Amino acid sequence: MEELFFCEIRDLYDAEKQLIEALPEMAKAASSDELRCFFEKHLRQTSRQVKRLERVFKVLGEKKATGRKCAAIAGLIEEANEIVSADGDRAVRDAGLIAVARKVEHYEVSGYGSAWAHAEILGYGKAARLLDQTLIEEEEAKETLTGMAPRASNRFDLPKTRSAVG
Ligand code: ZN
Ligand code: FE
Ligand code: FE
Ligand code: FE
Fold first, then answer.
1. Which residue has the higher pLDDT, 127 or 150?
2. pLDDT value at residue 73
3. Cα-to-centroid distance, 123 and ligand 3 (Å)
4. How much distance in Å is there from the Cα of 105 to the middle of ligand 4?
5. b/e map of 48-68 (b: 16 or more CB within 10 Å)?
6. What pTM, to 2 d.p., does this model score?
7. Phi, psi at 65, each rounded to 5°
8. CA 64, CA 91: separation in Å to the nearest integer?
């Protein structure tokens, strides 16, 4: 279990560092002020999450934080890049950015949720509390994005032609 737990936090550490590179591009690509501000704010929060993970490694007696390539976030960032470089209606692109950002936050919520639970099981109370702080932030980010997402009931906000949406 200890080995699994360390794999998990190394994965999260790498994921957060990849997101520090990707979030500025997503902010730049966002058209609405609300979405751009969300990405900028989440970038600052992500920097704090990286530092928090470094504290997790420290309280567990690791000399330095080490990452382990998170292939899932790399894949989601690839998806994000497809949206960032797509042309077409700006509102539709925002919808695509929100959709991929929701996938990222879902991934992080799951990852931190498991890591937190495993830290508790292993009796790593201090690490668990730190992981829980980030878990709460990721859940909030996920909810914020859900609130921003276009809904079926607001379908007239977006161009409705098949080519624009598909
Ligand atoms: Zn994260
Ligand atoms: Fe994050
Ligand atoms: Fe991963
Ligand atoms: Fe996040």
1. 127
2. 98
3. 23
4. 5
5. ebbeebeebbeebeeeebebe
6. 0.91
7. -75, 135
8. 43
Terminal CA-CA length for the chain? 44
Phi and psi (nearest 5°) for 68? -145, 120
What's the rounded Cα separation, in Å, for the pair 156 and 59?
Answer: 51
For the chain, the domains span 2-152
Residue among 48, 59, 43 at smallest CA distance from 104: 43
Protein residues placing their CB within 5 Å of the ion ligand 2:
46, 49
Q: Domain 2-152: give its CATH code.
A: 1.20.1260.10
Pure H helices in 30-124: 33-59, 71-84, 90-121
Q: What is the predicted pLDDT for the residue at 150? A: 87
60: phi then psi, degrees, rounded to nearest 5? -90, 5
Residue 51 CA to ligand 2 centre (angstroms): 11
CA of 57 to the centre of ligand 2 (A): 17
Which ligand is closest in space to the CA of residue 139?
4
> Whole-angstrom Cα distance, residue 61 to residue 69?
22
The pLDDT value given to residue 117:
98
Residue 29 to residue 18: CA distance in whole angstroms: 17
Distance 105 CA to ligand 3 centre (A): 12
14 CA to centre of ligand 3 in angstroms? 8
